[in-house]
Automatic annotation (TrEMBL):
Protein name as annotated: PH domain-containing protein
Superkingdom in the source lineage: Eukaryota
Organism taxonomic ancestry: Eukaryota, Viridiplantae, Streptophyta, Embryophyta, Tracheophyta
Compositionally skewed regions (Basic and acidic residues) per UniProt: 134-146
Annotated segments matching region Disordered: 134-155
PROSITE patterns the record matches: PH_DOMAIN
InterPro entries: EDR2-like (IPR045096), PH-like_dom_sf (IPR011993), PH_domain (IPR001849)
Source organism: Hibiscus sabdariffa
Domain PH: 3-110
Pfam families recorded: PH (PF00169)
Length: 155
Protein backbone atom coordinates (compact mmCIF):
# COMPACT_ATOMS: atom_id res chain seq x y z
CA UNK A 1 0.00 0.00 0.00
CA UNK A 2 1.20 3.52 -0.81
CA UNK A 3 1.91 6.06 1.83
CA UNK A 4 -1.25 7.94 2.88
CA UNK A 5 -0.76 11.68 2.37
CA UNK A 6 -4.12 12.81 3.78
CA UNK A 7 -7.46 11.29 4.70
CA UNK A 8 -10.77 12.25 6.22
CA UNK A 9 -14.51 12.67 5.84
CA UNK A 10 -15.75 14.84 2.99
CA UNK A 11 -19.00 15.18 1.10
CA UNK A 12 -19.37 13.43 -2.24
CA UNK A 13 -21.25 15.93 -4.42
CA UNK A 14 -22.92 15.29 -7.76
CA UNK A 15 -25.93 15.79 -10.00
CA UNK A 16 -28.42 13.22 -11.21
CA UNK A 17 -29.66 13.02 -14.80
CA UNK A 18 -32.79 14.98 -13.94
CA UNK A 19 -30.66 17.86 -12.64
CA UNK A 20 -31.11 17.38 -8.90
CA UNK A 21 -28.00 17.43 -6.77
CA UNK A 22 -27.05 14.82 -4.19
CA UNK A 23 -24.58 14.62 -1.33
CA UNK A 24 -23.17 11.60 0.50
CA UNK A 25 -20.65 11.55 3.33
CA UNK A 26 -17.62 9.54 2.17
CA UNK A 27 -14.19 8.79 3.61
CA UNK A 28 -11.53 10.09 1.20
CA UNK A 29 -7.95 8.82 1.15
CA UNK A 30 -5.16 10.58 -0.75
CA UNK A 31 -2.09 8.43 -1.36
CA UNK A 32 1.11 9.10 -3.32
CA UNK A 33 -0.51 8.13 -6.61
CA UNK A 34 -4.19 7.66 -5.88
CA UNK A 35 -7.29 9.49 -4.64
CA UNK A 36 -10.03 7.11 -3.46
CA UNK A 37 -13.19 7.22 -1.42
CA UNK A 38 -15.10 4.71 0.67
CA UNK A 39 -18.49 4.52 2.40
CA UNK A 40 -16.75 4.24 5.78
CA UNK A 41 -13.20 4.37 7.08
CA UNK A 42 -11.35 1.59 5.20
CA UNK A 43 -10.22 -1.56 6.93
CA UNK A 44 -7.60 -4.04 5.64
CA UNK A 45 -7.84 -4.66 1.87
CA UNK A 46 -11.22 -2.94 1.51
CA UNK A 47 -12.06 -2.00 -2.08
CA UNK A 48 -12.81 1.72 -2.63
CA UNK A 49 -16.03 2.92 -4.26
CA UNK A 50 -14.04 4.93 -6.80
CA UNK A 51 -10.41 5.79 -7.45
CA UNK A 52 -8.57 8.36 -9.51
CA UNK A 53 -4.94 7.94 -10.51
CA UNK A 54 -2.94 11.05 -9.59
CA UNK A 55 -0.11 12.03 -11.94
CA UNK A 56 1.32 15.18 -13.50
CA UNK A 57 -1.69 15.50 -15.83
CA UNK A 58 -4.21 15.95 -12.99
CA UNK A 59 -5.89 19.21 -12.10
CA UNK A 60 -7.84 20.44 -9.09
CA UNK A 61 -10.68 22.73 -10.05
CA UNK A 62 -12.38 24.95 -7.47
CA UNK A 63 -16.07 24.75 -8.36
CA UNK A 64 -17.05 27.41 -5.83
CA UNK A 65 -19.96 27.60 -3.47
CA UNK A 66 -23.06 25.46 -4.13
CA UNK A 67 -26.26 24.99 -2.17
CA UNK A 68 -27.97 21.69 -1.49
CA UNK A 69 -31.32 21.85 0.34
CA UNK A 70 -30.25 24.98 2.16
CA UNK A 71 -26.74 23.74 3.05
CA UNK A 72 -23.79 25.69 1.67
CA UNK A 73 -21.03 23.49 0.21
CA UNK A 74 -17.56 24.40 -1.07
CA UNK A 75 -16.88 22.12 -4.05
CA UNK A 76 -13.66 20.76 -5.61
CA UNK A 77 -13.32 18.65 -8.71
CA UNK A 78 -10.24 16.51 -9.37
CA UNK A 79 -9.65 15.13 -12.87
CA UNK A 80 -6.98 14.01 -15.31
CA UNK A 81 -6.63 16.26 -18.38
CA UNK A 82 -6.35 13.17 -20.59
CA UNK A 83 -9.64 11.75 -19.24
CA UNK A 84 -11.76 14.77 -18.31
CA UNK A 85 -14.94 12.75 -17.76
CA UNK A 86 -13.29 10.54 -15.14
CA UNK A 87 -13.42 12.90 -12.19
CA UNK A 88 -14.09 12.95 -8.49
CA UNK A 89 -16.16 15.83 -7.14
CA UNK A 90 -15.86 16.42 -3.42
CA UNK A 91 -17.14 19.12 -1.09
CA UNK A 92 -17.12 20.32 2.52
CA UNK A 93 -19.30 22.49 4.68
CA UNK A 94 -16.37 24.77 5.59
CA UNK A 95 -13.83 26.37 3.30
CA UNK A 96 -10.83 25.51 5.51
CA UNK A 97 -11.28 21.77 4.91
CA UNK A 98 -11.60 22.30 1.15
CA UNK A 99 -8.45 24.44 1.07
CA UNK A 100 -6.49 21.77 2.98
CA UNK A 101 -7.58 19.06 0.53
CA UNK A 102 -6.81 21.28 -2.47
CA UNK A 103 -3.33 22.02 -1.15
CA UNK A 104 -2.58 18.35 -0.41
CA UNK A 105 -3.80 17.13 -3.82
CA UNK A 106 -1.88 19.87 -5.66
CA UNK A 107 1.30 18.98 -3.75
CA UNK A 108 0.97 15.34 -4.87
CA UNK A 109 0.41 16.49 -8.47
CA UNK A 110 3.46 18.79 -8.25
CA UNK A 111 5.62 15.92 -7.03
CA UNK A 112 4.67 13.90 -10.10
CA UNK A 113 5.35 16.84 -12.43
CA UNK A 114 8.81 17.22 -10.88
CA UNK A 115 9.40 13.48 -11.37
CA UNK A 116 8.43 13.79 -15.05
CA UNK A 117 10.86 16.70 -15.52
CA UNK A 118 13.64 14.80 -13.75
CA UNK A 119 13.04 11.84 -16.08
CA UNK A 120 13.29 14.04 -19.16
CA UNK A 121 9.49 14.36 -19.61
CA UNK A 122 9.25 10.63 -20.18
CA UNK A 123 5.97 9.13 -19.06
CA UNK A 124 6.47 6.84 -16.10
CA UNK A 125 3.61 4.33 -16.08
CA UNK A 126 2.01 3.41 -12.80
CA UNK A 127 1.52 -0.26 -12.14
CA UNK A 128 -1.57 -1.24 -10.20
CA UNK A 129 -1.12 -3.71 -7.40
CA UNK A 130 -3.51 -6.61 -7.44
CA UNK A 131 -6.69 -5.81 -5.55
CA UNK A 132 -5.92 -2.07 -5.48
CA UNK A 133 -8.88 -1.00 -7.59
CA UNK A 134 -10.19 -4.36 -8.76
CA UNK A 135 -11.47 -2.60 -11.91
CA UNK A 136 -14.58 -1.57 -10.00
CA UNK A 137 -16.29 1.79 -10.30
CA UNK A 138 -19.33 2.93 -8.44
CA UNK A 139 -22.61 2.31 -10.22
CA UNK A 140 -24.12 5.18 -8.25
CA UNK A 141 -21.63 7.68 -9.66
CA UNK A 142 -23.16 9.91 -12.28
CA UNK A 143 -19.80 10.51 -13.98
CA UNK A 144 -19.01 6.81 -14.29
CA UNK A 145 -22.16 6.21 -16.32
CA UNK A 146 -21.36 9.17 -18.58
CA UNK A 147 -17.89 7.81 -19.24
CA UNK A 148 -19.31 4.42 -20.24
CA UNK A 149 -21.96 6.05 -22.43
CA UNK A 150 -19.45 8.45 -24.00
CA UNK A 151 -17.06 5.62 -24.86
CA UNK A 152 -19.77 3.51 -26.44
CA UNK A 153 -20.99 6.46 -28.53
CA UNK A 154 -17.45 7.36 -29.63
CA UNK A 155 -16.82 3.88 -31.04
Amino acid sequence: MSKVVYEGWMVRYGRRKIGRSFIHMRYFVLEDRLLAYYKRKPQDSQVPIKTLLIDGNCRVEDRGLKTHHGHMLYVLSVYNTKEKYHRITMAAFNIQEVLIWKEKIESVIDQHQETQIANGNKYVPFKYKSGMDDGRTASSDHESRFVAEGLSQAN
